[in-house]
Write a structure and sequence with these properties.
By secondary structure, the chain is of the alpha/beta class. The chain has helices at 6-24, 58-62, 75-80, 83-91, 103-106, 116-127, 152-169, 202-207, 211-223, 239-254, 274-287, 307-312, 326-344, 386-392; strands at 68-73, 94-97, 131-139, 176-181, 228-233, 261-264, 267-269, 292-301, 349-354. 39% of the residues lie in helices and 14% in strands. It has an eight-stranded parallel β-barrel, surrounded by five helices. Helix 7 (152-169) runs parallel beside helix 9, helix 11 runs parallel beside helix 13 and helix 13 (326-344) runs parallel beside helix 14 (386-392). The model is unreliable at 1-30 and 38-50 (pLDDT under 50). Bound molecules: alpha-D-galactopyranose.
Length: 398
């Protein structure tokens, strides 16, 4: 059974009904959006003197009645207070440390715990009034070998010790944890040995099952009963991945595993149909009453490469160059407006984060190959892009 909190019940009683009512009363037209959550208002301040950028707080204020709006940020940017850190401070209400909370940074060697990297970005976010999303307690790509040595019982004890130590350390500071990241199968077809719904990752192979997911959630809940616990996944906008996610959620539910929500990464393409992403939210809402949805890593790439580009760096699309084509910027803006307006109508969506602030921050400039990409809200100079204007001003013509 999913464990319901008083907050969940209140949200169920008030949230869905009020957002639908407001929408039917004309919310969503003009520059305002329908309200659905109890997120406290953040006062809009005047623009920084001499600045030509958006008014301070415009982005988070636009969505203050709907969801927190977040960005991934590294302590490196915070240390130097570069343009991305300044924009994050001025426009966002949630921060996801980009890599500082991953196990390969915190515990690269057995028994070692290094919190200094994470402390800097976590404390900076809190000092600036932002929520911190902890990402991620378990991810196969950031798992040092020592986590996986020995018998399943050894692995379980080590995982529980790690999660207990980390979650207790950040108790009261990190309010949301992605407990597991990318544990859903990536195989396309079912039926053969070793295929879906659980990813055959190093964790699955070492443990011999997906029970490690249960262990991780139970340890996190015990270490901080107040933190919200999420399962984070990419590709939930595609029906098959979504179906497997739902299968896993059913299993966790049946076993009484303490989970509060689903983090949908939403690494999207210019031609992604926004309805597919909204369907992912509905799939969770329709079956798992009380679970929260977060969009956790939004970016919209300019390249829909064939699979071979990701697998072997072949047949990748050529760079569009150092100046983004206007029609692609407009397509991106339309998608993002439709997406966020859709989220605003769903009371279970409580946080929406981007994987970076400026286009130059993005991993998509180097993955799968090096080329110019434009996946985020601000351009390389820190100026707002059409997609920023499209979501903060409903009258902005795309
Ligand atoms: C995945 C991970 C993130 C980040 C991105 C891009 O989505 O969940 O932590 O590493 O890839 O690099």
């Amino acid at each position: 059974m999913v464990e319901y909190t008083a907050r969940d019940r209140l949200k169920l009683l008030l949230g869905g009904a009020s957002s639908l009512l407001l929408a039917s009363c004309g919310g969503g037209s003009g520059s305002s959006l329908p309200a659905h959550s109890s997120t406290p208002p953040i006062t809009t301040s005047p623009p920084p003197s001499g600045g030509t950028g958006p008014v301070t707080g415009l982005l988070r204020d636009t969505f203050r009645n709907n969801f927190r709006i977040g960005a991934a940020l590294s302590n490196r940017r915070v240390d130097s207070m570069d343009l991305s850190a300044q924009l994050a401070r001025d426009q966002f209400s949630s921060i996801t440390p980009e890599w500082e909370l991953k196990p390969d940074v915190i515990s690269p060697n057995p028994g070692e715990y290094n919190f200094s990297e994470a402390d800097r970005v976590v404390d900076w976010a809190l000092e600036n009034g932002m929520e911190v999303r902890g990402h991620a307690l378990l991810w196969h790509e950031a798992t040092p070998d020592h986590f996986l040595q020995g018998s399943p019982a050894d692995i379980r004890a080590r995982l529980e010790e790690y999660i207990t130590t980390v979650v207790e350390y950040f108790r009261g500071r990190v309010s949301v944890w992605d407990v597991v990241n990318e544990t859903v199968s990536v195989d396309i077809y079912r039926g053969a040995d070793g295929i879906g719904p659980d990813r055959r990752s190093v964790w699955f192979n070492a443990v011999g099952s997906a029970d490690y997911i249960d262990w991780a959630f139970r340890a996190a809940r015990a270490a901080d009963p107040d933190a919200l616990l999420f399962m984070s996944e990419y590709g939930t906008e595609t029906p098959l991945k979504r179906q497997w996610l739902v299968e896993i959620l059913r299993r966790l539910n049946a076993r009484g595993v303490p989970i509060d929500g689903v983090g949908h990464q939403f690494h999207l393409y210019l031609d992604t149909n926004h309805q597919d992403a909204l369907d992912a939210i509905d799939a969770v809402d329709n079956e798992f009453m009380g679970l929260i949805n977060h969009a956790t890593e939004i970016d919209i790439t300019f390249y829909r490469d064939p699979g071979s580009c990701w697998q072997s760096r072949t047949n990748c699309l050529p760079t569009v160059g150092p100046t983004p084509p206007a029609d692609m910027l407009a397509q991106q803006a339309r998608l993002l407006r439709n997406l966020l307006n859709g989220f605003a109508l769903k009371s279970s969506v409580e946080s929406v984060s981007f994987w970076g602030v400026r286009d130059s921050d993005s991993w998509l400039n180097t993955s799968p190959i090096e080329r110019f990409n434009y996946p985020l809200l601000f351009d390389r100079n820190g100026d707002p892009k059409p997609c920023f204007n499209a979501i903060t001003d409903q009258s902005y013509v795309i």
